[in-house]
Amino acid sequence: MDVVLGLDLGTTNCKALAMGEDGQPVASVSAPTPVHTVTLPNTLQPGEEFDAEELWQTCAQLIRALIAKPGVDFRVVGIAVASFGEAGVLLDDARQPLAPIIAWRDPRTMLWLDWWRTRISETEMYRITGLSFRHIYSVNKLLWYREHAPQMFMRAHTWLCIADWITFRLTAQLATSYALACRTMLFDVSRRAWSDELLRLANLPADLLPPPLPSGQIVGAITADAARETGLLAGTPVVIGGHDHVCAALAAGVTEPGTILDSSGTVEAILVPLDQPILDLAATGGMPCGCHTARERYYLIGGVMSGAVVDWLARVLTGDDAPTTVSQLMLDAARAPIGAEGLWFEPYLDGAGSYLRDPAAWGAWLGLRLHHSRADMIRAAMEGLTFGIRHLLEKMQRAGKFPARALRAVGGGTRNTWWQQLKADVIGAPIETLVVSDVTAQGAALLAGIGIGMYADEATAIARAYRPMTRYAVNAENHARYEALYRDVFEKLYPALKPISLGRDYAGAKQL
Fold this sequence. Notes:
The protein has 512 residues and is an alpha+beta fold. 39% of the residues lie in helices and 22% in strands. It has a 7-stranded mixed β-sheet, sandwiched between helices. Strands 3-2-1-6-15-14 form a 6-stranded mixed β-sheet. Strands 4-5-8 form a 3-stranded antiparallel β-sheet. Strand 1 and strand 2 form a beta hairpin. The longest helix is centred in the last third of the chain and has 27 residues.
């Protein structure tokens, strides 16, 4: 049996999935992503780093384990890699890693935001890259390396994003996908090319960056060295993958305007496809706009810290954030009435990201009374998070002028059926969950299939792969009640709290 293989390098776990021509998984394996916590000077927050060789060895071992998995018999005919964005590897002339990989969310690059503000307006930056100023993007990591390790940086030959590094180890070819290049803050989204202007402003050489290619294009083949380490056959085609969320969108069939990806994890990402990029900062509020893994498509993406807030709730209210504890909290929330007996929750415990872009925004319970129970507190928190998702989606709809026909839900949050129904009722659009859980790895595998000709195009691949599991229809009565609560109260909470939260950021922010 011929299969294509998708790799997904996530912040928490790495996965490998073998998929048949019917678009369905044949076998999969996973392992924890090796990450190292480091102490940073002058900040209360720790840093995070990856070791490039450890990441490669993790992927190589996963592929070997997948091939050797008992009870399966297949031949890998193509492979593609998806990964988290922003982080990357600096290579020297001998194509060896020069330094530890700074994790995408590591705070050490915060100071570079002011550096950029003295050189280019945020409006112009967004017009070129589809990105507003944030510390996480790759260019800020390059500038940090240059400032703090100048001798090492002088030896730098190439920067590769994480999926590109694994693709390089498989093929010995240097390349990146449009989808990952969009997370560097150096890529011209309209031209689909590196920005000469931004490279000049950053004083970075153009040849430091690899050639950008569309996702789904063959970049090379498995080398003899990679074959020995992975068990794959030398000469097997390797296809350019992309950014994890955007690969997941492909597998979920979220490629046409009106379909929406709801990917729940630590951050709940909302992704909407576009026919053309929207590079107007005022229109989008700064939500990232980039190149889709589907050819000739673009996207807007934003997020709410849903998973992080749910874990926080479990830890604060019970002292335990285990999955069973979280499940029990959701059962408690379901017993409380709509509106949580007049209790409200602002979900911005880590500031308000996406289009509000307010790091000083507060999280809060408002309206607490002696009669409120733990169940009310949890219900209010889940309603507040869901109102936040609706708020984000409405901004996207105004920018892109599309209806919300349906949300395709993926990730760990889909296991909570009560929350999925709550989202359908608050947003006013049905929610569909999928049979396949590893949609990012499945999306990478679909790109491999497109690249080798197993599928004629994205539409054919999606038609084979997309399998809805559960559809949560909107409860019209509940939606009407939530509509009133959303308009009458929730939309007014953030503006009301902003004057007193302004300038009173979370502890440690000033040191960043």
